[in-house]
Amino acid sequence: MFADRAKIIIKSGKGGDGHVSFRREKYVAAGGPDGGDGGKGGDVIFQVDEGLNTLVEYRHSRKFSAQNGEEGGKRRCHGKDGADVILKVPEGTVILDSQTGKVIADMSGDNRRQIVLKGGRGGKGNMNYATPTMQVPKYAQPGQPAQELEVRLELKVIADVGLVGFPNVGKSTLLSRVSNAEPKIANYHFTTLNPNLGVVDLEGCRGFVIADIPGLIEGASEGAGLGYEFLRHIERTRMMIHMVDAASTEGRDPVEDIYKINQELENYNAEIAARPQVIAANKIDSIYVEEGGEDPVQRLKDEFEPKGIQVFPISAVTGQGIKELLYYVQDQLDHLPKDTVVFEPEFFPEDMLARENLPYTVSRDEEAPNTFVVEGPKIEKMLGYTNLDSEKGFAFFQKFLSESGILKELEEAGIQEGDTVRMYGLAFDYYK
Boundaries of each Obg domain copy (predicted)? Predict the structure, then answer.
């Protein structure tokens, strides 16, 4: 079974709670606080596995959770960190937020391993809260809660060349002849239900990867037939071989077929439709031209070659013309950018913190009028998941303050440039 889509629920580990305890030893009359910190919750990590080519295992299991961090212990013992959960996926898998459809991560190119949900930070034990005026703190910090998210996984195959065309034009036959692929071939529509990948080896060339995309039909971009399900697989290809039945063995007009399929590509994604194409006019072994009749291959050439689209007459059954077609494709690929098409992230799970309706307060420090204090569960949770030492983390922090309305409330409270903002032991100077 080929599975190229799945919907799963992922959950990071909760941070372990900090511990409240006091040193109790013989001859030590008043031992201080010795409650240890809680362990960090496990992360949810996606990792590319070269041995996988489907998402089928995610059709059977739908929920994946990392381990919670352990609670801190007595005698300053730190709780054990929770184990990460590592989800292995084939290269080319795109992880999307199921509600918005926005890209979280694309497991392609150099991106082989990515943390998608971070585990909660462990809470601090009461040993951290001892001060000259509070020598017996009887409280500890709770561990941060887990994050949970429903994501959609989509496999968009990675190939240099996409092989497109109406059903039954001979794509699978061509792929089986030119590569190591072994597609199932039969004489009925939509015989190919899986995108078949094959490696084309050419003498004197480096070769390329070709994907036989299941037969498209008119209306595919709007969900007709199964076409829409497979259009995603040509999103990464650098060029396309557009295959037609030049002999019209099923009564279709090959010129009209090309225009129809190109319109479907345009409707689905205009950028894909603009990529280089070459036309493989197949089944020339079945062409019969009556005296004075029109040669269908010449008609294709007259129609498309003035537009810069080369036409190669071939027979996938006999092999005629295939070598010329493949060497032309290789030459085109040599002059096209070699970078894999990678989809940029559009959704960041940390942004869920800004949308959560958790309380917070903004107040002016009575003892230091130029200092403003921002506290509450919303702030504490955000700080636990954000690395302020990194440029990306600090940019997220600034975006969070703006989108959550905190900056606006600080301005309404009278903050001025150069004033200090304090959040749980962290202090920042305010500047617009």
Answer: 1-158
